Amino acid sequence: MKKALIITLLFIVLALSANAYTVEMGEYTPSATSLSRAGFTLHKGDYSICANDYRIIPVWFNNNQNYAESITLKLNGANWAQLTGKQMDIPISKSGAAFIELTPLKPGNYTLNLNTKSQRSYLDLPIHLNVEDCYSLDVSFEKESDIVCGCESKQFDLTLKNNGKYKQNVKLDISGIEKYTLSNDTVNVPVGGENTVKVGVACPDAGQYELLATARIADLTFSDSIAIDAISEQDCYSVGIRGKTKVNVYEPGDKIILSVKNNGYQAQTYSVKLESPDWITTETSQISLDKGETSEILLSIKPTSDIEFGYYDVKVTVKADSSEYTHEIKVNYKPENPIIKSVKDFLHYYRFYIYAAPLILLFLLIFIIYVKKKISNRAKKTSSKKLKPKKDEPKKVKSWLGYAYITAVIVFIFSLIIYYLKINGLIPFHVGYILVGAVLMGLIILAIAFRKSKLFSKILLIVIVLLLLAGAGYAVYYFNLISKVKDFFILYWNYVVVGLIFLLVIIGLMNFLGRTVSVKRK
Questions:
Q1: Is 148 exposed, middle or buried (0-12, 13-18, 19+ CB in 10 A)?
Q2: Which SS3 state, helix, strand or coil, does residue 106 take?
Q3: Phi/psi at 216 (5° precision)
Q4: CA distance 414 to 400
Q5: What are phi and psi for residue 278, nearest 5 degrees?
Q6: How many C-beta neighbours within 10 Å does residue 466 have?
Q7: Residues 332-349: pLDDT tens digits?
Q8: What pLDDT, in 10s, does the model give residues 457-498?
Q9: Residue 347 burial (CB < 10 Å; 0-12/13-18/19+)?
Q10: Neighbours of 149 (CB within 10 A)
Q11: Which of 110, 182, 259, 377 has a beta carbon 3.0–4.6 Å from 242's, enabling a disulfide?
């Protein structure tokens, strides 16, 4: 009796410890509504899935008992993993399927826990998932920004690079601008490879745009953008032409120089057209300028003997695409005044002497004043030895400042006359230089008027010297005077040597005269 009771208890324990149902995990299935046993395939090991993908895992339940089972389901581990139902009712000796929907967003390794429970049994099933980055697409324009001028057409390379695990069929969309072209809106990109499409822009309205390219793979989007600055044609190809508008021509060989500056937004090639008489020509037919760059157009004037005196119109046209910019010149071909011509020839022939004359004059004035002061000091010393000492009297010191001012005025006026004759009618073009000269002249006159004020005189003297040095430095640079002075000394070195000898003779003579005067006074 006792043995029978023990056997019965063991049987009950074994029955209670055995699962009333079994659970099997299957391969991914395309539907989460129904599944037959024939359509179920058992899965072994971990699951692999792509990030941003959608997959369904079937879970197969077998009722092994002679009574119906009601199983409660619960899934933990990730909020992107969901059960299609929370309860399974399985009749006697029947089977059924539940489904787990997966929509992972980020790559990584995850573990889900499927908890199943009935009145007589329960199971905890771990599900290991390896989420991979299968859909990785790099979308990039060839540059970050660009300029579109007027109605020009531009194309930009858009590169698609597949860094994922599968070959992709990519769908492209363009937004941000109305007028565009796309070489292909669907592109196949192999694994680890890339493909390039052309995105074109033509005749956009003036303004700023962000051209956005969006690539789609299933429900995923990848994008890149390029900033487009659309400039009106007039502003884009803007050109500044600077030069004379009136020119007097007296003989062949004269030239007209026009300055052309690219005021637009990008490098451009301009065509040059000249409308003029046959004896006014240019060799410039085309100019290529970067943004902000300046170049010159040289017009050669070569009237023949049969050309009549009078006014002639010259028109220079600079063109880029459909934008044109013109500069008109009135050329007055007339005989030159013989007096002015002779003066110009004289000044040109003796220009080196004229350049040197003010400097020599200034040097001689300073030298004469120095010698006179030396003679005066010697005379005072000699007379002081013979006369009795007297009370101290204030010394009268002659200031050289006045002489320096007068000399500076003479040099400035003389230089201004030379410059006026040199440019001959171009004063309006050099108004800035004339104004600077006028200001300098005013400072010199002001300095002469207030020469007795030592502080004021020193300040003005410093300002004048700085202005003269700045003007002299600019003149040396602008007119290339260094090479001219070098040529002058190379050509006239013998005259320079004679001048130095003459200067030494004068110095010796002055010293001799000073000593003679001192001896006579003794």
A1: buried
A2: coil
A3: -120, 130
A4: 21
A5: -65, -25
A6: 10
A7: 888 766 676 677 777 777
A8: 667 667 777 777 777 777 666 666 676 666 666 666 666 677
A9: middle
A10: 21
A11: 259
DSSP assignment string, 463-492: HHHHHHHHHHHHHHHHTTHHHHHHHHHHHS
Q: What is the DSSP letter of 389?
A: P
C-beta neighbour count of 222 within 10 angstroms = 17
3-state helix, strand, coil in the chain (%, to 5): 35, 35, 30
- Per-residue DSSP letter, 428: G
Secondary structure (3-state) at 506: helix
**Beta carbons within 8 Å of 444's beta carbon, 6+ residues apart:** 405, 408, 409, 412, 464
Closest CA to 270 of 255, 258, 281, 256: 258
For the chain, what percent of residues have pLDDT higher than 70? 68
Provide the edge-to-edge strand list for the sheet that holds 145-149.
145-149, 220-231, 207-217, 168-175, 186-189
Do the beta carbons of residue 190 and residue 169 sit within 8 Å? no
Backbone phi, psi, residue 119, to 5°: -70, -30
Q: Is the pTM of this model over 0.85?
A: no
Q: Which of 348, 357, 295, 368 is nearest to 495 (CA)?
A: 357
**Average pLDDT of every residue of the chain:** 78
User: Are 239 and 320 within 8 A, CB to CB?
Assistant: yes
**Gyration radius from the chain CA atoms:** 51
The pLDDT of residue 17? 43
Evaluate whether 146 touches 262 at the Cβ level (below 8 Å): no
pLDDT at 253 over 70: yes
Spell out the residues 6+ positions from residue 151 whose beta carbon is closer than 8 angstroms to its own: 202, 203, 233
Query: 248 with 222: CB under 8 angstroms?
Result: no
Residues in the chain: 522
Between 201 and 427, whose confidence is greater? 201
Q: Kindly tell me the burial class for residue 405, based on how many C-beta atoms sit within 10 Å of its own C-beta (0-12, 13-18, 19 or more).
A: buried
Helix or strand (DSSP H, E) at 271: strand 268-275
171: tokens are 């769908």
Q: What are phi and psi of 12, to 5 degrees?
A: -65, -40
pLDDT tens digits, one per residue of 125-147: 999 999 988 888 999 999 999 98
With a CB cutoff of 8 Å and minimum separation 6, the contacts of 351 are none
In the numeric block, which tokens belong to residue 182? Answer: 């796309």
365-404 pLDDT, tens digit per residue, is 776 776 677 677 766 666 665 555 555 444 444 455 555 5
User: Chain centroid to CA 294: how far?
Assistant: 17
Q: What does each C-alpha distance from 482 to 6, 30, 156, 355, 363 come to in angstroms?
A: 129, 91, 52, 13, 21
